[in-house]
Amino acid sequence: MFIALKTKIWLTVLTIVLLFTCFTLIYFPLKQGESLLHNYNNEVQNHANTVALGVRIALKEQNYEGVQTAMQFVRGAPGFEFVSLLQVDTVWNEKHDSFIIKETVFGTYPDSVHVKPGQVSTDSIIIKRAPFQTPEMSGDIEVGFSTKEIIESKHKIQRTSLMASGGIFILGLLISLWLARNISVPVRVLRDAARRVGQGDLTANINCISNDEIGDLGKAFNIMVSDISKAREELREINQTLSDTNQRLNTTLTDLKATQTQLIHAEKMASLGEMTAGIAHEIQNPLNFVNNFSEINSELVDELHDELKKGDMQSANEIARNIKENEEKIVFHGKRADSIVKSMLLHSRTGSGQKELTDLNDMVDEYVRLAYHGMRAKDKTFNVDFKTELDPELPKINMIPQDIGRVLLNLINNAFQALNSAPYPPEGGHKKSPKVSVITKHIPPLGGRGQNSVQISITDNGPGIPDSIKDKIFQPFFTTKPTGKGTGLGLSLSYDIINAHGGEIKVDSIEGEGTTFTIILPV
Amino acid sequence: MKNYEVIKMKLSIYIRIIFSSLLFMSGMVVHAQTIPLTVISHPADAPADLKQSELKSILLGEKQRWKNGKKIEVALLKTSTAAGKEVCTKVYDMSADEVKKYWLAMVFQGKAEAPSFFNTVGELQAFVSENPGAIGIVDQIPNSPGIQVVMVDGKKTF
């Protein structure tokens, strides 16, 4: 339940005022009345005692000044009703064996009051007795005082209390108003300012007039708002900086993406270049055949015309048969060139192809040769003993051929390059015969469970990969080749392609002995 | 032997009774002796002679002012003195206790101021001589300039 501060102040002060009012209106007059009555009783008793003492002195010493003074004092006291001297006598019976105490009124002032022995106090009168005893007389002084004075005093106290309570109540109201004005109003101003700050208005400022905690709070609030404003300004500047940085990063990212695309393209072109060299070499042979046989056929056609002019049909037929054989060879080598060109086109296509069942063995065989001839095209001295062990039971794989072909070409090229760049053997040593083997293997599921897969291992006996860079070779742009010779994306792209096919690629290498890249692809 | 002791005891009792009776009778004789009393006053306000009834009225507190309006101040010897007792008998016709109670009642009821009681005649005379309007009773005729003897029914003593 929400109770406003103003209400709380009002309730608090009102409670205090009511409690105090109850105290001054009820408790205080009650206690005052009791105290007055008690004191009045004591006073009346003192009057009785004084008169009794005067009587005792008067009878014993015949000095009546004391009793006269006491009587004057008692008679003049406010509320005086009467003073009476009761004589107490012991009255024996005739046999003198029992007695009674007889109490008679010896004298009363004023005479008009008829005092009876044994009177007691009532609400309207207080009666007190004081004994005296002399040889001449024994008895009691009984004085009666009206409680009218007390009652009037009580009423006076009540009236005073009522006025005091009223005054206190009005004072309480004024204090409440003052407190509400000095506490509630500033707090409300503070609350409104806080709300405005919450809504984003940092110009909210409080005019701190009071020199107290609330004033301090207001000052602290102003400082806080100022700090928030500064912080927001700083934040805005930081945000601006971040925005600028973000903009630059976006630009950089765009540039990087473009660069990446260019690099990928460059990588592709690099591999294409390497492959083209092989292809060129591969095409060169069939083209030579085509050219040579075409030239031979041209000459044979001339000879055929001559023989036909001569009418030597047997020779003509022989020449025509040779022409046909040559033509067949031209067709064969033309198709061979066509196949090579198609492979090149296949490799150069962008990687948005569809998966299709592909004979991996054929692909491996083709790309090994392409890579080899590519190396040979660049370096006529390059020679390597390469062999393929292709599992005849290898099932066809559902894959994107150009992507997997790119991986194979990249790994085989790496193997050839590693052998080609191998340092000379130490003095007195023998250079190893460079070897590359590509092995395909069908891996059935273990225990008949799981999935069929194929494994392609590309092994070279080159210098191997140092342990320090083994973890980095699949990172994009990491390369050990000289600047401009490699993009550092070959293995990274290979890794991504194999992953995209649900397979895995791993490397085992011993420095100085060789490296084996193993690809496992699910069937 | 036994009769002798009884007679001796009876004789002793008789002797005691007789002795006591003699003592009582001698007391009666002493008590029966009257002391002449003299009324004295301050010469300023009191009259030179008074009637017995006037004196009694003054001593009872019934008359409290002289004819000139001066307040009468009564001085008496305490009732424990012989003269005081004589005053009780002759003037008040009361016993000493009755006089005490009388004045207690008067004072108590605010009807009169009680007399001043003194132990000796000298003190009483000194009081009378020092207070105009004072009147007192002594058992000897004074011879002092500040005191006058008031005649009662034409007598110096009564």
Main attributes?
heterodimer, A: 523 residues, alpha+beta, Beta-Lactamase, 3 domains, five-stranded mixed beta sheet, 16% strand, B: 158 residues, alpha/beta, D-Maltodextrin-Binding Protein, domain 2
Précis, in short:
The complex is a heterodimer of chains A (523) and B (158). Chain A has 523 residues and is of the alpha+beta class. In chain A, 59% of the residues lie in helices and 16% in strands.
Which runs of chain B of at least 5 residues are low in confidence (pLDDT < 50)?
23-32
Largest interface: A-B, 20 and 15 residues
The CATH topology of the largest domain in chain A: Beta-Lactamase
Level-1 CATH class name of the largest domain in chain A: Alpha Beta
Could you say what the CATH topology of the largest domain in chain B is called? D-Maltodextrin-Binding Protein, domain 2
Q: What gross morphology of chain A would you assign?
A: rod-shaped
Order of strands in the sheet with the most strands of chain A?
6-8-9-11-10
Rounded to an integer in angstroms, the radius of gyration calculated over CA atoms of chain A is 66 Å
Overall description:
The complex is a heterodimer of chains A (523) and B (158). Chain A is an alpha+beta fold and 523 residues long. Chain A has nine helices and eleven strands. Chain A folds into three domains: 5-170, PAS domain (Beta-Lactamase, 2-Layer Sandwich); 226-351; 353-423 and 433-523, 2-Layer Sandwich (Heat Shock Protein 90). In chain A, 59% of the residues lie in helices and 16% in strands. The longest helix of chain A is centred in the middle third of the chain and has 98 residues, at 213-310. Chain A starts with a helix and ends with a strand. With 158 residues, chain B is α/β, with parallel strands linked by helices. Chain B has helices at 2-31, 52-59, 82-92, 96-108, 121-130; strands spanning 38-41, 49-50, 73-77, 116-118, 134-138, 148-152. Chain B folds into two domains: 1-33; 38-152, Periplasmic binding protein-like II (D-Maltodextrin-Binding Protein, domain 2, 3-Layer(aba) Sandwich). The relative contact order of chain B is 0.21. The chains are: A alpha+beta (523), B alpha/beta (158). The A-B interface holds A 55, 58-59, 62-64, 67-68, 71, 75, 83, 85, 106-111, 136-137 and B 78-79, 97, 100-101, 103-105, 107-110, 113-114, 117.
